[in-house]
Amino acid sequence: MIKMLLFDFREQEKHFFETTNHKDFDITFYSHKLNENTELTQEEFDETEVLSVFVCSNITEKVINKFKNLRIIATRSTGYNHIDIDACVKRNIAVVNVEGYGKSSVAQYTIGAIIGLVRNFNISIRDFKEEKIDYNKYTGYDLSELSLGVIGTGSIGSAVCQIADKFKMHIFAYDIKYNPEISDFVDYVSLEDLYKHSNIITLHIPYIPEFYHMIGKEEFDLMTDGVYLINTSRGELIDNAALYNAVKSGKVKGAALDVLECENLNMYPDDVINIVKESSCDCLGSAIINQKLISEPNIIITPHIAYNTYQSINIILEKTFNNIKACLKGRCSERVV
User: Does the CA dihedral 257-300-156-315 come out positive or negative?
Assistant: First the structure.
């Protein structure tokens, strides 16, 4: 039996485990995340071979070194910047992630967010609740009159392009890799031209250190006035302070953010004391700006739910276990390290 600990376990994941057979695994489920303050038994630290986590866990070298026989860390996400990869390399621990699960769910969320922004859903809902209705504030745009800039045309970005095309939007795209499947209705341009000519910009690229704050003051200065911004990728791609200034100046008319820089500080308030202890000064500053952004009427912020459909959750879990089983047989084809 393979001893496995599964953290960040949610109610929606129960169905998968109730309807699939994992007889070779001795799994302990924890609804809380794994970090340096997580308390486990010595037996769990000594005997666990497989960990499965989500992005809210923080797998530092200190956490990794507590587990004496750890072989695999399987994150139920595409991104893996919450795991200390260098520490895993030192210990020869395989890290596997899940790709491609959110093609439909994230693309649909993105289009929904775009419609919500350009039709002023957030502003009108707040006004209605406060009984301060002003129809002059709610006039929106027909999508066919707007241009969409898509940064990253992998499976999700391409799906966004395909849906946007049905709305007869003019679509600009940027990617280092050209996607021939969407070339008939998408104009591939430089990042600079995409910023200059897009009414709406949406991010669909993975986060790597080289992309830290890839959208900052200079990029916002290039954008058309009144641009809308969507981010379902990683919060670290956008300089929060620059975004806040762009919102206050009117350069950015609205934004939908499903991810935030240092999002644990804002999205998991029940554990805020421990999270603050683990966070850098830069993260704490970013969290303060996030709170400022939340108060802006034309900003939509959701707690990392773009992928979150029952279909996607089942795909994530199925792929996670396929990856784990492949690694245990020495065939880690989808491993990060």
Answer: positive
The single residue listed with the structure tokens 């994230």 is: 106
Q: What is the pTM of this model?
A: 0.86
Domain coverage including residue 257: 103-301
SS3 46: helix
pLDDT confidence of residue 282:
72
Residues 175 and 191: their CA atoms lie apart, in Å, by 9
Confidence at residue 283, expressed as pLDDT on a 0 to 100 scale:
78
Task: Indicate if 164 and 278 belong to the same structural domain.
Answer: yes
Count of domains for the chain: 2
pLDDT tens sequence across 124-177 = 999 999 999 999 999 999 999 999 999 999 999 999 999 999 999 999 999 999
For residue 336, give the amino acid letter: V
Is 234 among the residues known to form the active site?
Answer: yes
* 28 and 150 belong to one structural domain: no
15 a catalytic residue:
no
Cβ(44)–Cβ(22) below 8 Å = no
The CATH number covering residue 84 comes to 3.40.50.720
Segment 28-73, tens digit of pLDDT: 999 999 999 999 999 999 999 999 999 889 999 999 999 999 999 9
Whole-angstrom Cα distance, residue 211 to residue 227?
A: 21
**Marked catalytic residue, from 263, 296, 331, 334:** 263
Q: Is residue 49 part of a domain?
A: yes
Q: Catalytic one among 76, 82, 170, 234?
A: 234
Residue numbers of the chain with a pLDDT score lower than 70? 264-281, 333-337
Residue 160: how many other CB atoms lie within 10 Å: 28
> What would you report as the CA-atom Rg of the chain, rounded to the nearest whole angstrom?
21
Same domain, yes or no, for 130 and 14?
A: no
In the set 304, 318, 334, 335, the catalytic residue is 304
291 and 207 inside one domain: yes
22 part of the active site: no
